[in-house]
Amino acid sequence: MRVFKVTKVLSNRMVATDTYLMEFAFPEISRSAQPGQFVNFYFSGRPQLFPRPFSIAGVNGENLSILYKKVGCLTEIMTQWQPGQKVRVLGPLGNTFNINHKNHVLIAGGVGLAPLLFLNQKLAGSNYKIWNFVGVRSKDQLPTLSLLSGKNYIATEDGSAEFCGTIVDCFRNNLGAIPRPFSVYACGPEKMLSALWQLSRENHFDLQLSLEKIMACGLGICQGCAIPYSHPSERPLRLVCQDGPVFNANELDME
Amino acid sequence: MTDLRIKLREDFILRNPLLTASGTYGYGDEIADLVNPELYGGIVTKSITLKPRAGNPPPRIAEVTSGMLNSIGLANIGVDKFLEEKAEFLADYGGKVIVNIAGSKEDEYVKVIKKLSDRQWIAAFEINVSCPNVTEGGIEFGKDPSILGRLVRKLRNTTDKFLIIKLSPNVTDIRVLALAAQENGADALSMINTVYGAAIDIYTRRPKINTVVGGLSGPAIKPIALANILKTYKEVDIPIIGIGGISCGADVIEFLLAGAYAVQIGTANFYNPGICAEALDFIKQYCMENKINCLQDIIGQVKV
Hints:
The structure holds two protein chains of two kinds. By secondary structure, chain A is α/β, with parallel strands linked by helices.
């Protein structure tokens, strides 16, 4: 069930350059929220009208967290929120990842780590095997978070830590060593997702991508976040907010 | 307690002046769990066309200063599916159901109305003659008074239901179109539809929406809406329903003072799901403080 309410920020700390982890109370949905789903934050009295969508990055008891990056004036305002700050939030919105296999590969680019943190949290502690690939531009962008469950790979594009290159290159190098069948779940910049999409076509693995588009409502009403569907005869467009944000690679054409 | 009811005609009374604007509240049922539709005086549905439409290719929206730019292109499920899927919910609705209709030919409007006219639960039709985002029809019907007049006359001869014509601000003088609609049998006017607008990404040098020019909505267009309503109110005898950037209860009062009998809340539904409840609270408070017993009494009462 979706809930729109005023809640309070519980903590809001910087975990990497320009990257923050914010926790807030949301007991109404903390049990039902699933990895891949997102919440909207609302801002009033500002020239920027649209609410801002954020993937749920984790659940802790009755609280939810989001991982966000300062990219514009609204996220800049968010970085200044102190514990106790009242915020208007709506969620959970959108769909979730499908858990098909026992071997799971999580691939994150930058702040695209957010939904995968939550997915890792859900998968941990079961008899699943998890491989985490986390890519950032440079070492200072790597969030100082507690270690993810499973085997961890880190890539920096400038080579300032661990693998030097993109996270897709890092994954490609290790692809052969991961026992099949496995599912890959990914979130990150469009270039990264498109490279993974290509790789999944060549190497035939299950790939689920969490997408981001500008949304005015997040509820399927404004119809603004439409993307082309790979089988146009059925329904030529899909809505990222409602049909997604998680899509199977075969639903998308990212050539 | 103030009487919030608004009489647009002897037999057409709204329980309060707040309506949803077409395209910002779906068909009524999709977000009923978040925004109680019973708070509204009525629901104006998303534009319905004869055949389903997927709408324009992306990108179809952009955020601009105090506004929203869109080129959705009348994406909708079509009249047959609308009746199949939405009739049950809308038939139970306590407010007025106003079905918005769009078309690219006169005949299409007529066919849609014929399919809907015998439904008791439909209180009114709002005719979209002002969509800026489709290549054929749409706004073409809303620019030329003789073309508009002919369409309105045809629709008037097709249905006895309350007929609202939604006008575009993208014309030299909206009053000419308003009078053409009135003379040919319209029961009310709604204004304004979105204003032509554009935005460019300076890094990619591409327009921010696929159609290059789209429709601007949100608080940015409120003064444009008010100016058009003030001008038109003096010229016409039929009621005006105000639309354009309403974002709070004070805005609603402002529109009523300018001459609107009722208002539609549009883009604000996207960025504030609490808008309707908040606006109603404000209106009640305002009326109490200003000793207004009957909200209808303030319509057109701007001191000019």
